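TICKET: design request
STATUS: open
ATTACHED STRUCTURE:
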């Protein structure tokens, strides 16, 4: 096969894709909201929904080289028109320029949750993706990368592959994270989201198999299903604390979701200092939505509360949420109160 004329450039960009910034954290911890706000700043390159779709079609680079990107994005928008205004699980708009996760490109096609997207087998796909973005967008601005399943298991591989990359970790109280994950997964299984059907093969396959979808739905509404999500969050957080302890000089900034809700401008100032760049504060203010804590979530968290202690202590959290009027999430609260209000989901 004759090499494409641009292949030499891609090979070079695979070795040097330009500056990289990874956003890491559990699903439903605020990573998506921060991803959107940073992408909107104009200070970063980022992977868009159109990029994910076009790469799956094998046309991403070719559209760029033949000046068809504008028309291809318009066609993608037309597919979404009238069927999906947002992602279904949050208020993130469903558009061609919506920032998306690199795991959708490099993953193995299964539903993604708690297994790392970046592995020794998939690393070359991430290198290729970064090279394609450098070819298309240049390398002047940092490339913003996010895929929650890589928290924290892929950190050793990512940091060794790109020693100069910078990482921003977003933390959220695990009780609020668990409730948000339970709500999101139950919603995703209950009804198809046209936007996600376009982008995620594993999600399409779930809805192509009614029996499997029913099994998954019943499991997610069971105590065992909630326990599985709780255990995954616990493993991820304890793994991250252990990784931090063993890498005291890691090039990483940790932020709390709750603090960003209170002082978004201050959070952007901290990130700007960490990244050595000027970040303009977002014009869209945080608008957290209240989310009622359910008894099954409270029970699962309470069973693991002591195990969460190293994470809670490390990031200054109390054992329980104190209600929607206390966004710092500090302080005790009765574990059996089913009407307790959590700091709700923002664009998360």
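STATUS: resolved
RESOLUTION: sequence designed for all positions
ATTACHED SEQUENCE:
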């Amino acid at each position: 096969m004759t090499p494409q004329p641009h292949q030499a450039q891609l090979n070079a960009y695979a070795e040097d894709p330009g500056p990289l910034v990874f956003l890491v954290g559990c699903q439903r911890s605020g990573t998506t909201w921060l991803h959107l706000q940073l992408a909107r700043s104009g200070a970063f390159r980022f992977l868009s929904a159109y990029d994910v779709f076009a790469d799956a079609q094998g046309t991403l680079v070719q559209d760029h080289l033949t000046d068809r990107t504008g028309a291809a994005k318009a066609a993608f928008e037309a597919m979404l028109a009238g069927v999906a205004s947002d992602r279904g699980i949050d208020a993130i708009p469903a558009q061609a320029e919506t920032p998306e996760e690199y795991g959708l490109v490099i993953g193995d096609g299964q539903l993604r949750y708690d297994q790392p997207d970046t592995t020794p087998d998939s690393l070359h796909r991430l290198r290729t993706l970064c090279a394609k973005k450098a070819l298309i967008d240049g390398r002047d601005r940092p490339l913003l990368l996010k895929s929650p399943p890589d928290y924290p298991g892929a950190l050793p591989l990512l940091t060794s592959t790109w020693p100069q990359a910078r990482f921003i970790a977003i933390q959220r109280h695990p009780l609020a994270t668990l409730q948000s994950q339970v709500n999101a997964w139950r919603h995703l299984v209950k009804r198809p989201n046209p936007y996600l059907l376009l982008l995620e093969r594993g999600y399409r396959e779930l809805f192509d198999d009614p029996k499997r979808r029913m099994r998954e739905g019943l499991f997610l509404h069971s105590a065992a299903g909630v326990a599985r999500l709780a255990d995954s969050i616990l493993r991820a957080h304890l793994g991250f604390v252990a990784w931090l302890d063993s890498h005291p000089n890691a090039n990483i900034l940790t932020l709390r979701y709750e603090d960003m809700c209170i002082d978004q401008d201050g959070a952007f100032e901290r990130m700007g200092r960490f990244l050595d760049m000027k970040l303009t504060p977002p014009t869209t203010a945080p608008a957290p939505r209240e989310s009622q804590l359910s008894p099954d979530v409270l029970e699962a968290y309470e069973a693991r509360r002591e195990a969460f202690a190293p994470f809670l202590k490390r990031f200054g959290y109390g054992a329980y949420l104190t209600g929607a009027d206390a966004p710092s999430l500090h302080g005790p609260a009765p574990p059996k109160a089913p009407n307790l209000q959590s700091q709700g989901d923002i664009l998360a």
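CLOSING REMARK: Residues 223-246 form the longest helix (24 residues). The chain has 17 helices and seven strands.
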